[in-house]
């Protein structure tokens, strides 16, 4: 049988038509298969609709399934023809003693999605929801959202039936499907359909034990969105969820983790919370070494959230995030990202030692990111500064080509010098960095080099010559580099007025007519100031180190108040993109967080609410920062984003870590 | 939930296309095929968003198995479902999963897809169970007309022990246990252990009649502390600390959580009873001691000493130690007392193979590497030395099965067999 033939020529369709209408059963069946094959490759075979549905008269279940598949695919194109099959479905649903046939019929019936056919569906569907056979029931409950989506107006009696079923159903699988189906309707309608009470919760918890793995996931996923009434209820639900941590399906485990972590907030008993954290951590770590990299990736993308709310879970466990040599790069990037977040003033040595190894990797992007991470750690933790600089300098010594990592190295060194100017002495870092300065070929790295030449003019031999070289090419540079060159050249001029006077004139001549207003403005400001009062210029361009000691120490990815909502969505698409659901999906309503305070669970202390403190602190920082920036950054507004971090609360989230 | 499931070949052609919800058009999928699969661009990342549609996919050999959705689904579940789907297909196709068998069995695949997912919601996806009511070429008419049998089938499928059919009969009741451990270790250049863990798995082949209830015990520290000590009995075995355990769905998890007792009604035939992870007190079966020397501009010397650290009466088999060499290696002279070492350019390394290796034994390999001259002045990035091996009757974690008790109404005494084996997982030593 030809599966992937060429386009169905008109002749072929005719041939199929003939075969479908043939009296020979086998011939008919082959023809139906061919029709499905054409459908798969995207060819339009809807013209055969009538002939295909005629084949339904045979009581062959394989063929029936294929024809149903065909009908589902084309029913909306041919609503009038689809009416003809209705009788068939109704007969199957009502008359057939075979539960598989009943289920198949109701399942397919629901998929027709033709509004005017749905009214014929209501009665059989009601019957199926109350069928004796659980297999039919579990299929029927999933039919309701299908109908609801197309014709919600005829659904109220069905919804009533579902709610009744929720109260009396005893089969775990049906119950799980029921919850999922009602949730689907909740999403479409935006209304709350599931009404829980103590008894139903009990039943759901019981069903988790008996259900197939997907059912367990539906129920746990749903429970994660529920807010328990009190500490007692939360405790019961956690207790019943704990065994799921040992399930072999990683998603079941992960959902169990989600439920437990979410309910921790509702517990009064601090010791219990600690104990539970101890139980959750090893399961979570097992998931990180799961042998399917895709699953591992989804877990890793959620770690930053867990780290932020539950630092306690990964205490002393940086090692689990170390990269293996053979891992795919998308996993390695995630791990790198997490290692920086998990790094603190105690374990930075361990992390830096590991990052040092990654500098030998073959992939230049990965090495670049490693360098960025090292820089980030150096800037965030004062104690790590020496070691980080040593590593970077050692790396710089072996550089012979203008590669991608080199660009990052120069950028990071600039940031480090900005944080602590004295670092230039450390292991002759300045000398070595200066020796590779010619390898800069990206705007950011070039501007970093220009900054270094200006800032350390007095320590660099022939700095004026270097600057001349830059200024000779001024017109060809990127705007970012031009702006930095202006500042740096002025800086150098203040250090060596006699040597640089011609240089400055040359610069002003070439910059004052720039097409870029920023460049032009800056040129004029410097020009005027230099000709009136060079002292003011000095204050402007030569800041002392310490000004930038106020680097952002904030590695948080999520806004603290978003943590609870993000936790509910652990494992979902939105969390994978580090967003809240309503930020990613327009039709989702913003869910208001009812909890007043967000608890953060740290290692040694008892859980405490830190939101307020942090917010106050943030507020102060922002104000301070803004003031400083007004003072100093008046002209230097093109510094890398790290400095402007707190200017705007939102940029916090995306600073050095690029999100997708 | 999920809008559609699609199988795509490496050229970006659609092999199987099943829609569960209307919110997706075929052109969106073909766009994904053309942009991502055919160009191999960014294909690595398992989830990609294009214009509000999420494409969640895994790649099995050359086949991309894709799920699309427009809502905020649980990605971990979706991925897990795709893996399960492939597993089901393999079970039907005798372990195969490639373009040929997909094309050959496409009718069957559509039938499977119809059953394992409804309205984008994953349903029963257990291969053994599905085989009961989905068969190539349709079900036998006897079954289709036997309403009693059908009822039994649906009640098993939806019941609490869906994995085991009732009324099984074996003339000889037997159970085979395999304890398989993979040791993952990463050693630094100086030989300190950076990371070490054991990923263990207990495979069971169960040929038992009726509905047996099994109870399984091992030398798990926590379990043994719970057991009452028999008077007069002193055990030296204190047990081992297991970091984490994961069980097959048949194991009664609440009971394990409360009593740490592993009880279950097993499925019929082969299954993985549990997996576990251990990070403490691991007995590494091999020590690798490399020495790396640059003897000149175009000459390197790597010496690798390996030492087995297990009892003399045990043997390791099928050792393969891969020593990486630079790309521009021209010639390698190897010298070792046992095994065969050969430069394999396609692997970019010297592979040292030893068929059988006794316990408590040291062996040395010396490689002299001549380098060809290249224009590329980049220093060689040294990948780690890796090692493969198997050590039968040895567990790196020290895990021992203590008992497997089987209770069945019929009261038969089954024969029980047990094997242990330790394999290398990622056994790496940085050079």
UniProtKB/TrEMBL annotation, chain A:
<dbReference type="GO" id="GO:0012505">
    <property type="term" value="C:endomembrane system"/>
</dbReference>
<dbReference type="Pfam" id="PF01602">
    <property type="entry name" value="Adaptin_N"/>
</dbReference>
<keyword id="KW-0472">Membrane</keyword>
<protein>
    <recommendedName>
        <fullName>AP complex subunit beta</fullName>
    </recommendedName>
</protein>
<dbReference type="InterPro" id="IPR026739">
    <property type="entry name" value="AP_beta"/>
</dbReference>
<feature type="domain" description="Clathrin/coatomer adaptor adaptin-like N-terminal">
    <location>
        <begin position="11"/>
        <end position="533"/>
    </location>
</feature>
<dbReference type="GO" id="GO:0006886">
    <property type="term" value="P:intracellular protein transport"/>
</dbReference>
<feature type="compositionally biased region" description="Basic and acidic residues">
    <location>
        <begin position="605"/>
        <end position="615"/>
    </location>
</feature>
<comment type="similarity">
    <text>Belongs to the adaptor complexes large subunit family.</text>
</comment>
<dbReference type="GO" id="GO:0030117">
    <property type="term" value="C:membrane coat"/>
</dbReference>
<keyword id="KW-0813">Transport</keyword>
<feature type="region of interest" description="Disordered">
    <location>
        <begin position="605"/>
        <end position="660"/>
    </location>
</feature>
<dbReference type="GO" id="GO:0016192">
    <property type="term" value="P:vesicle-mediated transport"/>
</dbReference>
<dbReference type="InterPro" id="IPR002553">
    <property type="entry name" value="Clathrin/coatomer_adapt-like_N"/>
</dbReference>
<feature type="compositionally biased region" description="Low complexity">
    <location>
        <begin position="617"/>
        <end position="633"/>
    </location>
</feature>
<keyword id="KW-0653">Protein transport</keyword>
<dbReference type="InterPro" id="IPR016342">
    <property type="entry name" value="AP_complex_bsu_1_2_4"/>
</dbReference>
Automatic annotation (TrEMBL), chain B:
<dbReference type="InterPro" id="IPR001392">
    <property type="entry name" value="Clathrin_mu"/>
</dbReference>
<dbReference type="InterPro" id="IPR050431">
    <property type="entry name" value="Adaptor_comp_med_subunit"/>
</dbReference>
<dbReference type="InterPro" id="IPR018240">
    <property type="entry name" value="Clathrin_mu_CS"/>
</dbReference>
<dbReference type="GO" id="GO:0006886">
    <property type="term" value="P:intracellular protein transport"/>
</dbReference>
<comment type="similarity">
    <text>Belongs to the adaptor complexes medium subunit family.</text>
</comment>
<feature type="domain" description="MHD">
    <location>
        <begin position="172"/>
        <end position="430"/>
    </location>
</feature>
<dbReference type="InterPro" id="IPR028565">
    <property type="entry name" value="MHD"/>
</dbReference>
<keyword id="KW-1003">Cell membrane</keyword>
<protein>
    <recommendedName>
        <fullName>MHD domain-containing protein</fullName>
    </recommendedName>
</protein>
<dbReference type="GO" id="GO:0016192">
    <property type="term" value="P:vesicle-mediated transport"/>
</dbReference>
<dbReference type="InterPro" id="IPR043512">
    <property type="entry name" value="Mu2_C"/>
</dbReference>
<keyword id="KW-0813">Transport</keyword>
<dbReference type="GO" id="GO:0030131">
    <property type="term" value="C:clathrin adaptor complex"/>
</dbReference>
<dbReference type="Pfam" id="PF00928">
    <property type="entry name" value="Adap_comp_sub"/>
</dbReference>
<dbReference type="InterPro" id="IPR043532">
    <property type="entry name" value="AP2_Mu_N"/>
</dbReference>
<keyword id="KW-0472">Membrane</keyword>
<dbReference type="GO" id="GO:0012505">
    <property type="term" value="C:endomembrane system"/>
</dbReference>
<keyword id="KW-0653">Protein transport</keyword>
